[in-house]
Structure of Tellurite resistance TerB:
Amino acid sequence: MALWDRIKESASTMQTQLNAKKNDLKSGAFRDSS
């Protein structure tokens, strides 16, 4: 059970980091195009 919790936690952390990277890319593309 503890292992599953750790897996879920690291997965949600990765998801957060991915979203942050995606937002950075989006805002960067916005700046470049405008």
